[in-house]
Amino acid sequence: MRERTIASHFARAALEGARRQGHECSPLLQRLGIAPQWLDEPRARLAPEQFTQLLQGLWLELNDEYLGFGQGRCRRGTFAMMSHALIHCPTLEKALNRGLLFYSLFPDAPRLRLSREGDCARLSLDASNLWDPDHFLSECLLVVWHRLGSWLIGQRIRLLEASFGYPRPEHASEYDLLFPCPLTFDATATSLLFSSRYLGMPLQQDERTLKQFLGRAPADLLARPDDGDSLSSQLRRLLSRDATRWPDLEAVAQHLHISPQTLRRHLREEGTSFQELKDQLRRDIAIYHLGRSERSLQQIAEQLGFSEPSAFHRAFKKWTGLTPGAYRAQEL
After folding, report:
1. For residue 104, how many other CB atoms are within 10 A of its CB?
2. What is the distance between the terminal CA atoms of the chain, rounded to a whole angstrom?
3. How does pLDDT run along the chain (332 residues), one tens digit per residue?
4. Residues 6+ apart with CB under 8 A from 212
5. What are the backbone angles phi and psi of residue 291, rounded to the nearest 5°?
6. Can you tell me the distance from the alpha carbon of 28 to that of 54, in angstroms, rounded to the nearest whole number?
7. How far is the C-alpha of 13 from the C-alpha of 196, rounded, in Å?
8. What ranges in the chain are assigned the alpha helix state H?
C-alpha cells in the first residue's frame, strides 16, 4: 500500500479562495468528515481521497475551477472542453500548445507558455493576475499540466527541474509529492523543465479513455502523488511491498547493492533519512486503516511494528498532532 497522505497545509490553502469570496466552507468540511480545528494542526494529514473530494466539492460549490484565486471565474467544464479540444492532436507538443491556446482565449486566465531551450522544454507560468498568497493555484496548474501531459503520452514525463519565483516555503518538504526533481526557489520565473524528446511523442489516449479520465480530473491529478525516480521514492516502494516486515537500513542497503554509509549519504543529500521514510510510511498506513473500521487500534499498532499500543499512540500523535483514537473518531 503506497497511498501518500496530504499535508493539512494544502487543504487550508485550497479553502482560502472560497473564504476570500465569503463562502461558508463548514458544511462541506462536515460532509467530508474534516474537522475545521483539525486543519489548524500543522502536522495533520488528509487521505488522498479526502483531498480529492475537497477539491471537487469546492469546484462544485463555487462553480470555479480556479477555486476563487483568479480575477474572474473559470466555470466548471472548462478543463473538460480544453481536453476535448486537444485529444485528437498527433503529438504532445501540438496538444499542449492547443490546450494553452484554448486558455489564452480567456482574458483573466493565468498565462502558461511552452518553449524550447536546446534539448529541453520549459513550461512557464505567469501568475501575476492571480490572488494566490500561498501559491496554491500556481502549483496546482503546474502539476495538472505535467500530469496531463504524462497521461496523454502514456508515460511519466521526467522533470529535470522545478523553479519557483518565490522563497522556499515552510512546507517545502512536501514538494517531493508534486515535483520529484531538483527544486529552485527565488527563481526569475515559475516553471517546469523537461526533455524536449517528449514533445514529439504521439498521444496514446482517445475520446473513450478521456471520458473515464474526466470523471475525476483534474482533482485526482493533484491528489495522486508522483512516485518519482529519487532514492527516497525507491525506498518507499521497496518498504511498501511488505508492510508487515520492516527491514533495517543494513538489509535495505544490501538489497540495493550499496553500503549503509552510501545509503545514508544519498538520503541526506535528498533531505531525509531512513528512519524518517519509515515513519512517513507507517504514518500513511496508519491513516489509511484508521479511516476504515476493519482493524482495531491494537491490530494497526502490531502491523506497524509497535510492541505496545501506547508506543503507537505516542508516535501517531507526534506525526499528526492527534491520537489514533481521536483521528478515527473524526474520520468514521
Report:
1. 12
2. 21
3. 446 788 889 999 999 999 998 999 999 998 888 888 778 888 888 888 888 889 999 999 999 999 999 988 999 999 999 999 999 999 999 999 999 999 999 988 999 999 999 999 999 999 999 999 999 999 999 999 999 999 999 999 999 999 999 999 988 888 877 888 889 999 999 999 999 999 999 999 999 999 999 987 787 777 666 656 678 777 877 887 766 677 889 988 988 889 999 999 988 877 788 998 888 888 888 888 887 778 889 989 888 888 888 999 999 999 888 888 888 887 65
4. none
5. -80, 0
6. 8
7. 33
8. 8-20, 26-31, 36-39, 48-62, 78-86, 92-104, 136-153, 207-213, 219-223, 231-240, 249-255, 260-269, 274-290, 297-303, 309-320, 324-331
Burial label for 215, CB within 10 Å (0-12, 13-18, 19+), is: exposed
The rounded distance, in Å, linking the Cα atoms of 14 and 66 is 10
* Residue listed under C-alpha cell 538520503: 267
Long-range contacts of 201-206 (CB under 8 A, 24+ apart): 201/91, 201/92, 201/153, 201/155, 202/90, 202/91, 202/92, 202/153, 203/87, 203/89, 203/90, 203/91, 203/92, 203/95, 203/152, 203/153, 204/152, 204/153, 204/154, 205/87, 205/151, 205/152, 205/154, 206/87
Check residue 309 and give its pLDDT. 85
Q: Which residues contact 44 (CB under 8 A, 6 or more apart)?
A: 7, 8, 38, 320, 321, 322
Q: Contact 25/17 with Cβ under 8 angstroms?
A: no
Per-domain residue ranges of the chain = 6-70, 78-222, 231-331
CATH number of 231-331: 1.10.10.60
**Amino acid at site 228:** G
DSSP string, 239-255: HHTTTTS---HHHHHHH
